[in-house]
Design goal:
Length: 607
């Protein structure tokens, strides 16, 4: 018996040792170890930030520190190291340690093309170890951004004639020299895209004739308009954003020119003294597809009419931002652009709105239009009646809601390929202005603020906003409007009064905006409402929304406009799928912005 026990114990210990051995070496059998190094390197490559902005260049530090195998693969994969992280010219980066780091980084990139961003906007360096490390690799420079003064750029003079790979160049210069040529980049056979940001060097020399994209955002009075229009005959994209009066100074140098390949032109002029008129007058652009123009002064509509007539072009996208447009200007321009698909305008006059409306027996302007955006200033009064009629006639075309158009006329419109407008959007720079536009378009402004059915709802909402100033989008100030504490008892009294108030016509809820404030309270975090565990404010707000839900649903067929994001309202066609979906109440409470970048909200400030 004793012998058997001893033998069993021996077998048990042997089994445990085998199991331990297997577990300890199980990682050897991992599928990851069977990956070819080329495949693993490709996976590592897609872990990097691959945006076009070199400021976002990232190094593969994380994957190179997981294990010896991964580190070996990472260090031997050049494509992980040819996009250098931002290189700042500072006292710290003059150290031998940093120089050694940068040399190792560049060595790991082997012979692949390099992308880098050098930043030192204020100190002037006639030489710096970072620049000295980059210069020997100039034949590999592909995408280069230099945010440095003129003197620092001049210290790179040794790379002149040694830029055989350079394709994209961005210069950001806070200081320039008015009498010294900048010709370092004049010989670069593959250079195609150039961006000048800041001050424009008067004697800049580039291989203009081979450029296909040129972008300029200059603060100086010596922009490159004359050079570009006269010498860059292969341009496909031209963007100029100018805040100084440089156009009038370059007008004598402008000559008539035809840019046969230009398909995108964006001009944003923020100086009140003059316009882009001389530039536009010098151009003929037969291949233009996209045209975006912003100007504080001048009748740019007439300039654009002449441009389109002269160019005999087929515009697809047009955006105009101007405070100097006259009624009828836009109509005359649109009559020349029958193939237009996307249109953006600012503060559109009633006459032009009416001319865009589809009416029986009337010629249809821009019959192929698919997207229409109107940007409105806060003090601009939109003709809501005319705009509603225009939106209905184009967005509800070919539906049962098409007004005043017979079947015969419908067939005529189809035969002439008049397309249904897919999107109408009104944008404002502030949220309360956006809500004002929605109220006007939906007809809620017909209810007077003194209406006895409305005044209690307005009183309730003012009380709520006093306790929640962050929800007051009309008057909220991050500092001045912030209350130190919330009075839970007062807030409870307001909720009780609202809960006891009889449900009124839904239009009074809309006009008071009480429904929006209550909806926002229901979505606040518990931490933002003291004593919510006791008074259940969020749950009670949600219950009130549920109480009003039936009235909202009954009124949905009457709703036409939905807020989209914080700054815009969009038209909802009668047959929109959203109306019959489980999310139909988004028409009431608004929908999140999904496809327009925040920067685009405020065009032309960020053209």
């Amino acid at each position: 018996m004793h012998i058997r026990t001893t033998r069993d114990e021996k077998y048990r210990r042997e089994k445990e040792s085998y199991v331990h051995f297997i577990r300890a070496h199980q990682a050897i059998l991992s599928p990851a170890r069977a990956f070819p190094p080329e495949l693993l390197g490709e996976i590592f490559f897609h872990c990097l930030d691959l945006s076009d902005d070199p400021r976002n260049n990232s190094a593969p530090w994380a994957v190179s520190q997981v294990c010896r195998w991964w580190r070996s693969v990472a260090l031997s994969t050049p494509s992980l190291w040819n996009r250098a992280p931002m290189l700042r010219l500072t006292k710290r980066t003059t150290s031998k340690a940093y120089a050694s780091f940068l040399e190792s980084y560049l060595y790991r990139s082997a012979d692949l093309p390099l992308s880098f961003y050098v930043a030192a906007p204020f100190p002037e360096y006639e030489g710096h170890p970072v620049l000295e490390a980059l210069i020997p690799h100039s034949q590999r420079w592909k995408t280069v951004t230099l945010e440095v003064p003129f003197v620092t750029i001049q210290s790179l003079s040794r790379v002149r004639g040694r830029l055989s790979t350079l394709r994209t160049l961005q210069l950001k210069m806070p200081r320039v020299s008015s009498n010294v040529p900048l010709d370092i980049f004049e010989i670069a056979p593959k250079l195609r895209k150039v961006t000048i940001n800041g001050l424009y060097p008067r004697l800049l020399k580039l291989p203009w004739s081979q450029l296909t994209q040129y972008m300029e955002k200059t603060l100086s009075d010596s922009g490159g308009a004359a050079h570009v229009l006269r010498e860059a005959s292969r341009l496909t994209v031209l963007r100029m954003d100018i805040t100084a009066d440089c156009v009038s100074r370059t007008t004598p140098d402008l000559v008539p020119v035809t840019l046969h390949h230009l398909h995108t032109l964006r001009l944003n002029f923020q100086h009140g003294g003059t316009t882009f008129g001389p530039i536009i007058a010098s151009l003929t652009i037969p291949a233009i597809q996209e045209l975006r123009v912003s100007s504080m002064t001048g009748n740019i509509a007439q300039d654009l009419i002449s441009l389109v007539e002269r160019s005999q072009c087929s515009l697809r996208r047009l955006a105009i931002h101007s405070r100097a447009l006259r009624a009828g200007d836009i109509t005359r321009l649109l009559a020349l652009t029958p193939l237009l698909q996307e249109l953006e305008l600012s503060d559109l006059e009633s006459e032009d709105i009416k001319n865009l409306t589809i009416r029986p027996g009337k010629q249809v302007l821009v019959p192929s239009l698919q997207s229409f955006i109107v940007r409105t200033s806060r003090d601009f009064t939109l003709d809501a009646v005319s705009f509603n009629a225009m939106a209905r006639s184009r967005c509800d075309l070919y539906t049962h809601a098409a007004v005043g158009i017979s079947n015969e006329q419908m067939n005529f419109l189809r035969k002439h390929n008049v397309k249904r407008l897919k999107s109408v959007r009104i944008m404002s720079s502030i949220q309360c202005s956006c809500l004002d536009k929605q109220e006007g378009l939906e007809g809620w402004t017909s209810i007077d603020y003194a209406d006895p059915k409305l005044t209690p709802l307005l009183f309730f909402r003012r009380g709520l906003l006093f306790e929640f100033p962050q929800l007051d989008h009309e008057n909220y100030d991050d500092e001045g409007s912030r209350r130190n504490s919330l009075d839970s008892r007062r807030l409870d009294d307001i909720f009780v009064a609202i809960e006891d108030h009889p449900t009124t016509d839904v239009k009074y809820l809309y006009r008071s905006r009480l429904y929006l404030t209550m909806y926002e309270i229901s979505r606040l975090s518990p931490q933002s409402i003291p004593a919510d565990n006791k008074y259940k404010f969020r749950a009670r707000a949600a219950a009130l929304i549920e109480k009003w839900k039936g009235a909202f649903i009954m009124d949905l067929p009457n709703r036409r406009w939905m807020t989209l994001g914080r700054y815009s309202v969009v038209y909802v066609p009668v047959d929109d799928k959203l109306r019959s979906s489980p999310d139909a109440l988004r028409i009431v409470f608004g929908s999140k912005e999904t496809y327009l970048h925040e920067i685009d909200m405020f065009w032309p400030s960020h053209i």
